[in-house]
From TrEMBL:
<dbReference type="InterPro" id="IPR036891">
    <property type="entry name" value="Signal_recog_part_SRP54_M_sf"/>
</dbReference>
<dbReference type="Pfam" id="PF02978">
    <property type="entry name" value="SRP_SPB"/>
</dbReference>
<dbReference type="Pfam" id="PF00448">
    <property type="entry name" value="SRP54"/>
</dbReference>
<keyword id="KW-0963">Cytoplasm</keyword>
<keyword id="KW-0687">Ribonucleoprotein</keyword>
<dbReference type="InterPro" id="IPR004780">
    <property type="entry name" value="SRP"/>
</dbReference>
<dbReference type="GO" id="GO:0005525">
    <property type="term" value="F:GTP binding"/>
</dbReference>
<dbReference type="InterPro" id="IPR003593">
    <property type="entry name" value="AAA+_ATPase"/>
</dbReference>
<dbReference type="InterPro" id="IPR027417">
    <property type="entry name" value="P-loop_NTPase"/>
</dbReference>
<feature type="binding site">
    <location>
        <begin position="244"/>
        <end position="247"/>
    </location>
    <ligand>
        <name>GTP</name>
    </ligand>
</feature>
<feature type="binding site">
    <location>
        <begin position="104"/>
        <end position="111"/>
    </location>
    <ligand>
        <name>GTP</name>
    </ligand>
</feature>
<keyword id="KW-0694">RNA-binding</keyword>
<feature type="binding site">
    <location>
        <begin position="186"/>
        <end position="190"/>
    </location>
    <ligand>
        <name>GTP</name>
    </ligand>
</feature>
<dbReference type="Pfam" id="PF02881">
    <property type="entry name" value="SRP54_N"/>
</dbReference>
<dbReference type="InterPro" id="IPR000897">
    <property type="entry name" value="SRP54_GTPase_dom"/>
</dbReference>
<dbReference type="GO" id="GO:0003924">
    <property type="term" value="F:GTPase activity"/>
</dbReference>
<dbReference type="GO" id="GO:0006614">
    <property type="term" value="P:SRP-dependent cotranslational protein targeting to membrane"/>
</dbReference>
Amino acid sequence: GLADRLQETFKKLRGHGKLTEADVNEAMREVRMALLEADVNFKVVKEFVAKVKERAIGQDVLETLTPAQVVIKIVNEELTALMGGTQSRIMIASKPPTVIMLVGLQGAGKTTSAGKLGLAMKKQGKRPLLVAADIYRPAAIKQLQVLGEQLNIPVFAMPEGTDVVTITEKAMEQANSHINDIVIIDTAGRLHINEELMQELKSIKQHVKPHEILLVVDAMTGQDAVNVAESFNADLGLDGVILTKLDGDARGGAALSVKAVTGCPIKFVGMGEKLEALEPFYPDRMASRILGMGDMLSLIEKAQSTFDADETKKMEKKFRKDEFTLDDFLAQMQQVRKLGSLDQILGMIPGMGNIKKKLGDVDLDLNGKEIKHIEAIIYSMTPKERRDVNIINGSRRKRIAVGSGTKVQEVNKLIKQFSEAKKMMKKMQGMTKGKGKQGLGG
Ligand code: GDP
Ligand code: MG
C-alpha cells in the first residue's frame, strides 16, 4: 500500500524536528505515483499533491509520530476530504414514498443494486417497492422479479412495450395504495451514453420527480466511470453515485475522482455479487484502504492510551538488547488483548499482510481460550526456561505439556510463535517510533 511506500521513503529521515521541503517532495513523488497507478484523474492528483505539500512542509514532527506518520496523517485527511469528508446518506422524504431512481450504463449493476438497496431498506424496517422500468429486454424484468422473490420484496412490472412513463406512474399509484414508503426504479441502460437514453431518463424524472437519482457505475472501469458520471450529471443531475464492483478493483481510483470531478458524493459501494454486499460509503475508511494502512492511526492512538509509556519503553529496550523473554511475551499479549482481537490489531498495522504471509502456518489468530492455554504453558515453565527458550528441549517440552494440561504440539507452537513474534517486533520497531528518542534508528 501507499502507507508502506511512505514508510520506506522516510526510513532514513527518522528523528527530524520539522518536515523539510525536500522530505515532503520525496514523499509526494510516491503519493503522486501511487494515485496515478490507482487510475485517479490527473488533474485531481495534481491539485491533491499541491494541497498536501502545502500542509506538510514545516509541520512539526510530534513526539509520538514519525515523519512518515505525519505525512500519512495529512494524506489520509486530504483523501477523506477529497471524497466528501463525511458519509452521504439517502434523503428520506418527509412525505412517503421516497423515490429512488437508478440510472447507468448496461452492466454497471443497476438491477443488482436495486435488489441490494431494497434489502437494506427492508432491514431498516421500510416497505420498498421495486419497479422494473427496463423495457427493452424481457430478461431484465425477469431478473428483477427473481430478485424480488428471493428477497420477498414486491416488484412492479408491466407487459413488454409499455412506455416507461406509464410504468412509473402506475408504480407510484401502487406504492401509494400499498403503503410502500420506498420506491426503487430500475431503469434501462445502454452500452454507451446516447440521446435516446437521456431523453427516456429525463421523462421519468419529469413525471415522478425522484428524490434521489443515483448513478450506478462500475469501479473497474476506472476513469471511464468518472467520465460517465460527469455526463450523467450534466444531462440529468445526480444526487449521488453507487460505485459497484469495488470488490474487484483494489486501486479505487474511481472512488477518489468521482466526487472531486463531478461534485456528486458516492453514497454506496457494491462489494460483491451477493445481495448483502452493499455498504454505505465512508470516505475515511476508503482513504485508509487506498493508503493500505488499515486503521493504523487509530491503532497508534489506541496503543498510546492503553500502553503504559514506561512499560513500552522498557520493552523496547529489551527488544534492542534481545532480552525479551516469555514472561514479557505473556505480559505484552495480555496488554495487547485489551486493544481487541489479535486479528483486528494485525489488520490495523501496515505491512502486516506481508509478515503474516511470511509466517505461513504460524497461527496468529489468538482468541481468549488460546491466551488461557498460553498462560498455562508459560506458568508451567521454570523461570530459567522463561528467560531462555533455547534450553527447552524435548523432555522439558513434554513436562511442560503435562503440567499445563496441553499437548506437546501446543508447547512447540507457542515457542515458535514467541520466536516469530520476537523477529516480527524487531521489524516493527523500524516502523513505529514509539516513545523514547534513544530508540530511534538505534
Ligand atoms: P445492470 O445492467 O446495470 O442492471 O447490471 P446488473 O445488475 O445486471 O449487473 C451486471 C453484473 O454485475 C451481474 O453479473 C452482477 O452480478 C454484477 N455485479 C453487480 N454489482 C456487483 C458488485 O458490487 N460486485 C461484483 N463483483 N459484481 C457485481
Ligand atoms: Mg438491469
